[in-house]
Amino acid sequence: MNAIIIEDEYLAAAELERLLGEVAPSMTILTKLDSVSESVKWLRKNKADVIFMDIHLGDGQSFDIFEQVEITVPVIFITACDEYALKAFKSNGVDYLLKPIDNESLSAAIKKAESIAGKNVPSKSNIDAAIGELRSYRERILIWKGEDLIPVNVNDILYFYFDQRHVYAKSTDGDIHSVQFTMHELESE
């Protein structure tokens, strides 16, 4: 596995690299980065299989990186702060280790990352696109106009409402029409 370390404290980065040499000797550390700006610049041009990342960097929080670059590989957060765990897991975090870390915790985190690596962790934009593809809404609806059912474009309906026994649609032209569906059926559509 190819990894990068994003850590602004030189000694902490060196210690992590030493520990990685013990628990994952086949892992290659491609680079060590110490700032948000440097990390963004590197990640725009390069790829790694896993990222080891501290939360607080000299020029901001590591979460700022995710706002500028789409990261689709597992991230193992290594930090002294425990209050960012939830946010970390929302940012491709597969583990959240508190400093000082031990070999056992680091080894378990690497195994987790290895099981995910190469499987293209879905990004928020990919998830939103997939949900959008799954959603299909009715484009027209049949409404009663006198004795006839006529198709009306859903975009021409302002809202639906229920009045005692019937469901009605108010259209953009101000007309109110009886609808052949229940509110539950409309909601599911």
Notable features of this structure?
alpha/beta; five-stranded antiparallel beta sheet; five-stranded parallel beta sheet; 7 helices; rod-shaped; 35% helix; 189 residues
Q: What's the structural blueprint in terms of helices and strands?
A:
Layout lengths: L1 E5 L3 H14 L4 E6 L2 H10 L4 E4 L2 E2 L2 E2 L1 H6 L6 E5 L5 H5 L3 E6 L4 H14 L7 H11 L5 E6 L2 E6 L3 E7 L2 E6 L4 E4 L3 H6 L1
Parallel strand pairs: 1-2, 1-3, 3-6, 6-7
Antiparallel strand pairs: 4-5, 8-9, 8-12, 10-11, 11-12
Helix pairs in contact: 1-5
Short description:
The protein has about 190 residues and is of the alpha/beta class. The protein is built from seven helices and twelve strands. The two termini are about 45 Å apart.
Regions with little confidence, pLDDT below 50 for 5+ residues: none
Which descriptor suits the 3D outline?
Answer: rod-shaped
Distance between the termini: 47 Å
**Percent range of helical residues:** 25-40%
Strand content: 25-35%
Topology, number of strands:
12
Rg value: 26 Å
Please give the largest β-sheet: 5 strands, parallel
Lateral arrangement of strands in the main beta sheet: 2-1-3-6-7
Q: What structural class do helix, strand and pairing data support?
A: alpha/beta
Q: What string gives the helices and strands in order?
A: EHEHEEEHEHEHHEEEEEH
